[in-house]
Design brief:
about 130 residues; 9 strands; 2 helices; 4-stranded mixed β-sheet; homodimer; about 45% strand
């Protein structure tokens, strides 16, 4: 099987590109690296991009609903995120402790997409 | 701002969990690491998981449409993927050469989600 390096782009479909780009920049620090009429691309890491597409604006793909996306954090950062999110107007909707020792916190973006921050000890591989 | 390591989980919403898990295993080699009534989780890398949710089966999130997801590949693997995909019943829908030198190929999964394999030279950061 040919090699593959990992997920480069994950996509969310949003009502308001400006509002979403502002949210991901202010809450996560993701810088905008592309700005167009139907798409904002924001940098998650040097190897990962989050694509914010305007709903209904792309010919060959589109999405509806409240999608789910999870970001990895180190255990030492969990308390800081627990403080940071409410300080930036984000309500923590729920928390989960995983049998393998990991912890997750869940909250919403402006389109009600379900975001998660998770520490190692969730999956067998992480 | 608290640190964040990157995208751990991206999600797709599918009609048939078995069919989708088989597709991602056979075409990409992603091993199933969790199997339940509403979710198959497959390993993309040691740090990334793709979640295949059954449409309409989760209470707090759900998705409709043909979503977009891109995987990074090295340039040397492009030709092998161009051969591998048709050999495994996958039709390459389109190709794109990026101004920065990267190349993308686009194709569909069983739910018509738009998948992309992309070599470096697409974004400013990759």
């Amino acid at each position: 099987m040919p090699p593959l390096q990992g997920v480069l782009e994950a996509s969310l479909y949003v009502d308001d590109l400006e509002r979403s780009a502002r949210f991901y920049q202010e809450v996560f620090g993701f810088a905008v690296i592309h700005s167009g009429d139907r798409l904002r691309a924001v940098r998650v890491t040097d190897r990962q991009v989050l694509l914010l597409f305007k709903k209904g604006a792309s010919a060959d793909h589109d999405g509806e609903g409240r999608l789910h996306l999870a970001f990895a954090i180190v255990p030492e950062a969990l308390q800081a995120w627990e403080r940071w999110l409410p300080e930036h107007g984000v309500v923590i909707e729920s928390r989960k402790a995983w049998p393998r020792g990991g912890h997750s916190i869940y909250f919403r973006d402006p389109d009600q997409h379900l975001l998660e921050l998770v520490t190692p000890g969730c999956w067998s591989i992480y």
